[in-house]
Specification:
Blueprint: H1 2-12, E1 23-25, H2 35-43, E2 47-49, H3 59-62, H4 68-83, H5 86-110
Parallel strand pairs: 1-2
Protein backbone atom coordinates (compact mmCIF):
# COMPACT_ATOMS: atom_id res chain seq x y z
CA UNK A 1 0.00 0.00 0.00
CA UNK A 2 2.83 2.45 0.80
CA UNK A 3 4.54 1.85 -2.53
CA UNK A 4 1.32 2.38 -4.48
CA UNK A 5 0.63 5.57 -2.49
CA UNK A 6 4.08 6.91 -3.39
CA UNK A 7 3.52 6.01 -7.07
CA UNK A 8 0.15 7.78 -7.00
CA UNK A 9 1.59 10.93 -5.43
CA UNK A 10 4.45 10.94 -7.92
CA UNK A 11 1.99 10.69 -10.80
CA UNK A 12 -0.29 13.42 -9.44
CA UNK A 13 2.57 15.89 -9.23
CA UNK A 14 4.07 15.06 -12.61
CA UNK A 15 7.32 13.78 -11.15
CA UNK A 16 9.63 12.29 -13.75
CA UNK A 17 10.15 8.54 -13.88
CA UNK A 18 13.90 8.92 -13.41
CA UNK A 19 15.39 11.67 -11.29
CA UNK A 20 19.11 12.41 -11.25
CA UNK A 21 19.38 13.89 -7.76
CA UNK A 22 18.94 12.12 -4.44
CA UNK A 23 15.69 12.52 -2.53
CA UNK A 24 15.39 13.47 1.12
CA UNK A 25 12.45 12.26 3.20
CA UNK A 26 11.87 14.71 6.09
CA UNK A 27 9.48 14.78 9.01
CA UNK A 28 7.87 12.24 11.28
CA UNK A 29 6.75 10.00 8.42
CA UNK A 30 10.43 9.46 7.65
CA UNK A 31 10.52 7.27 10.75
CA UNK A 32 8.25 4.65 9.16
CA UNK A 33 10.27 1.47 8.97
CA UNK A 34 11.31 0.72 5.41
CA UNK A 35 10.10 4.05 3.98
CA UNK A 36 13.50 5.13 2.66
CA UNK A 37 14.07 1.79 0.91
CA UNK A 38 10.55 1.86 -0.55
CA UNK A 39 10.96 5.45 -1.76
CA UNK A 40 14.30 4.51 -3.30
CA UNK A 41 12.62 1.77 -5.35
CA UNK A 42 9.75 4.07 -6.35
CA UNK A 43 11.87 7.07 -7.36
CA UNK A 44 14.77 5.02 -8.77
CA UNK A 45 17.32 7.19 -6.97
CA UNK A 46 19.11 7.48 -3.66
CA UNK A 47 16.91 8.39 -0.70
CA UNK A 48 17.95 9.42 2.76
CA UNK A 49 16.19 10.45 5.95
CA UNK A 50 16.52 14.20 6.50
CA UNK A 51 17.29 15.84 9.82
CA UNK A 52 17.30 19.56 10.67
CA UNK A 53 20.47 21.52 9.91
CA UNK A 54 21.80 24.86 11.12
CA UNK A 55 19.98 24.97 14.43
CA UNK A 56 21.10 26.35 17.77
CA UNK A 57 19.62 26.12 21.22
CA UNK A 58 17.63 22.97 21.94
CA UNK A 59 19.76 20.86 19.64
CA UNK A 60 19.25 17.69 21.70
CA UNK A 61 15.57 17.84 20.80
CA UNK A 62 15.35 19.60 17.46
CA UNK A 63 17.89 17.49 15.55
CA UNK A 64 15.54 14.53 15.20
CA UNK A 65 14.08 13.93 11.72
CA UNK A 66 10.51 14.49 12.90
CA UNK A 67 11.39 18.15 13.53
CA UNK A 68 12.90 18.73 10.08
CA UNK A 69 9.73 20.08 8.47
CA UNK A 70 9.06 22.53 11.30
CA UNK A 71 12.69 23.66 11.45
CA UNK A 72 12.75 24.12 7.67
CA UNK A 73 9.61 26.24 7.75
CA UNK A 74 11.06 28.35 10.57
CA UNK A 75 14.28 28.88 8.60
CA UNK A 76 12.27 29.84 5.53
CA UNK A 77 10.14 32.27 7.55
CA UNK A 78 13.21 33.89 9.05
CA UNK A 79 14.91 34.30 5.68
CA UNK A 80 11.73 35.64 4.06
CA UNK A 81 11.28 38.17 6.83
CA UNK A 82 14.90 39.29 6.71
CA UNK A 83 14.85 39.57 2.93
CA UNK A 84 11.42 41.21 2.73
CA UNK A 85 9.99 38.53 0.46
CA UNK A 86 6.31 39.08 1.26
CA UNK A 87 5.13 38.21 -2.26
CA UNK A 88 7.08 34.96 -2.32
CA UNK A 89 5.66 34.14 1.09
CA UNK A 90 2.10 34.59 -0.19
CA UNK A 91 2.74 32.25 -3.12
CA UNK A 92 4.37 29.62 -0.92
CA UNK A 93 1.56 29.85 1.63
CA UNK A 94 -1.01 29.30 -1.11
CA UNK A 95 1.00 26.41 -2.52
CA UNK A 96 1.42 24.78 0.89
CA UNK A 97 -2.29 25.23 1.59
CA UNK A 98 -3.14 23.56 -1.71
CA UNK A 99 -0.74 20.70 -0.99
CA UNK A 100 -2.23 20.19 2.49
CA UNK A 101 -5.73 20.04 1.00
CA UNK A 102 -4.61 17.40 -1.52
CA UNK A 103 -2.88 15.41 1.20
CA UNK A 104 -5.95 15.62 3.43
CA UNK A 105 -8.15 14.43 0.57
CA UNK A 106 -5.79 11.53 -0.16
CA UNK A 107 -5.65 10.51 3.52
CA UNK A 108 -9.45 10.56 3.79
CA UNK A 109 -9.72 8.41 0.67
CA UNK A 110 -7.10 5.89 1.80
CA UNK A 111 -8.01 5.67 5.47
Amino acid sequence: PLRSALHELRGQHGAPQHVAAARVVPGGAAQIEGLAACAQRVFHTQVRIGAPLNITGLTDYAQEPYYSTAVGLLHYGKESHLNGEAEVEKRVTASVGSWIKRLNSWLRKEF
